[in-house]
């Protein structure tokens, strides 16, 4: 009977201690990050010897800050494996991917995001931007339209739409979007320059 009472009590105490050490490790990690001591911020978490989603997500960010892009990507991949529907981990992994110039992986990651969340405006805009940079104007337009349906007055999306239409020699349509972009940001030199050429 004693053991039936003592064992759950010991497990409960161990659980509280583990939680407190995890909170302390994260607290130390944030403090070290603030002081730009990234190696110490990483150690504060790796010393726990725990493989959790939140630790891998945080380590991905810290390795990215310390310019270890390979380890950053590995940690973000572990986080995604632990939480397959995570959008935040996917937004994290594009940081080392884009810094390394791996635009195919970046595009694949953003496409995964819109598969999980079709109306995600950040992912849709960035997909459109990548397609625009690749001169794939049809696909670029497809994704930027999704953003404009939800955010009709968004500066970046109106500007990008105008640029896509200019590239397609649809200047009359482009002008409408460039004017909207200028209404949002009358100081935009880029929008002013495009408008002068139309």
Structure at a glance:
By secondary structure, this protein is mostly helical.
Protein model, in words:
About 7% of the residues have low confidence. The longest helix has 33 residues. Helix 7 packs parallel to helix 9. 80% of the residues lie in helices and 0% in strands. The protein is mainly α and 198 residues long.
Number of helix segments? 11
Shape: elongated
Q: Distance between termini? A: 86 Å
Q: Which percent range fits the helix content?
A: over 70%
* Largest sheet data: none
Which segments are poorly predicted (pLDDT under 50) over 5 or more consecutive residues? 7-19
Query: Which structural class do the helices and strands define?
Result: mainly alpha
Number of strands: 0
Approximately how much beta-strand content do the residues carry? under 5%
| CA-based gyration radius | 23 Å
Overall pLDDT? 91
- Strand-and-helix sequence, N→C? HHHHHHHHHHH
């Amino acid at each position: 009977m004693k053991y039936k009472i003592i064992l759950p009590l010991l497990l409960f105490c161990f659980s509280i201690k583990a939680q407190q050490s995890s909170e302390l490790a994260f607290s130390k990690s944030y403090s070290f990050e603030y002081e730009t001591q990234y190696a110490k911020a990483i150690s504060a978490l790796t010393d726990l010897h725990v493989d959790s989603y939140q630790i891998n997500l945080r380590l991905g960010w810290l390795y990215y800050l310390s310019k270890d892009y390979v380890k950053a990507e590995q940690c973000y991949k572990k986080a995604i494996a632990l939480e397959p529907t995570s959008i935040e981990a996917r937004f994290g992994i594009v940081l080392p991917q884009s810094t390394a110039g791996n635009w195919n992986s970046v595009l694949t990651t953003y496409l995964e995001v819109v598969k999980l969340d079709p109306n995600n405006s950040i992912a849709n805009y960035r997909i459109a931007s990548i397609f625009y940079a690749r001169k794939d104007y049809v696909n670029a337009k497809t994704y930027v339209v999704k953003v404009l349906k939800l955010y009709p007055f968004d500066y970046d999306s109106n500007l990008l739409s105008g640029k896509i239409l200019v590239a397609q020699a649809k200047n009359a349509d482009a002008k409408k979007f460039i004017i909207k972009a200028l209404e949002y940001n009358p100081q935009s030199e880029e929008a002013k320059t495009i408008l002068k050429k139309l």
